[in-house]
Amino acid sequence: MTLKVIGAGFGRTGTASLKVALETLLGAPCYHMSEVLGNPGHVDKWLDVAAGNPDWNSIFRNYEATVDFPASTYWRELADAYPEAKVILSVRDAESWFQSTQKTIFSKDLQALYAGTKWGRMIKATIDDHLGGDINDKESAIAAFHAHNARVAEAFTADRLLKFEAKDGWAPLCKLLDLPVPDEAFPHINSKEEFDGVLELLSSPLGTGAMNGDGMATDSAHDDFFDKK
């Protein structure tokens, strides 16, 4: 497999829904932060990326698309590595994005959970250090959000880039990828309540192992993790 779609949008811009939508359209897996935790060794692979030693083919060998952090941090490098891939910039209202992050991916509860773990080091190296400033400071985080989106929007021609909101549904995605519109509702997942389920799982011994790079130890545990996403 090779990447056909590179998601350049920040986490909490509908990336979980976009992951499912792209998997439906492409008939192949889409990478997401959940895959980092689900696959043994992937935390280490992203630490290698942060250290300047990426092995993109190793990370994405079983995927045709990627969305969400940490891959979206490296959108420019991925676009160069996969020049035929389309780029999707998922966006949402900046205020609602910030409020959502504070209850989920940038929450103090999650930060406390991954403190001292290998996953925590990976998040700092691949996300926090690239955003600059304080991810829990509204002005700083929103400024980083706008600056990132502007850089992506300026980097590609219209035939390669799609600026996308989940409310847009199937049509713009299908047009970009030259695929038929599915006869089913566009997915809408990963609410705050669903994220709370993920926190519960990460608090378990299984989650601790995943945060230290072991992935989900069994296929059933891996499936349980994704069901909660």
UniProtKB/TrEMBL annotation:
This is Sulfotransferase family protein. Signal peptide: none annotated. It comes from Roseovarius litorisediminis. PANTHER family: P-LOOP CONTAINING NUCLEOSIDE TRIPHOSPHATE HYDROLASE PROTEIN, P-LOOP CONTAINING NUCLEOTIDE TRIPHOSPHATE HYDROLASE. InterPro entries: P-loop_NTPase (IPR027417), Sulfotransfer_4 (IPR040632). It holds the Pfam family Sulfotransfer_4.
